[in-house]
Design goal:
The protein contains five helices and three strands; from the N terminus they run ααβααββα.
């Protein structure tokens, strides 16, 4: 195997489906549940553990925020736990999109 252990470890951490899940968050108009993410990547062959691993890593890095649960009018928690793209990650995506627009506009 070529590369250092750290390089191989970093490569192993990258999810094959991470770009799809990130895109789902970037385009969502509401927080997403674990099941929402599964429905995005399962047709592409992802497993539940792929989604769980990516979500855990994204939360740990601060890219995704835990939004908790919806609440009834009485304050009771209902439904699945929800997650959203952190504002700092959203800002990076906006900058990246602008950079891409400039490249395509110049061509």
């Amino acid at each position: 195997m070529e590369g250092t252990f750290a390089d191989r470890r970093d490569e192993d951490r990258r999810s094959t489906y991470g770009a799809l899940m990130l895109a789902a968050f970037a385009t969502a108009r509401r927080p997403l549940s674990f099941q929402d993410l599964v429905s995005v990547v399962a047709p592409q062959g992802a497993t539940l553990s792929d989604v769980a691993d990516w979500l855990a890593t994204a939360r740990q890095s601060g890219m995704i925020e835990d939004m908790g649960f919806d609440q009834t009018e009485g304050g009771e928690m209902v439904g699945p736990r929800l997650f959203a793209l952190a504002e700092s990650a959203r800002a990076v995506i906006r900058v990246d999109r602008r950079r891409g627009d400039r490249r395509h506009g110049a061509a």
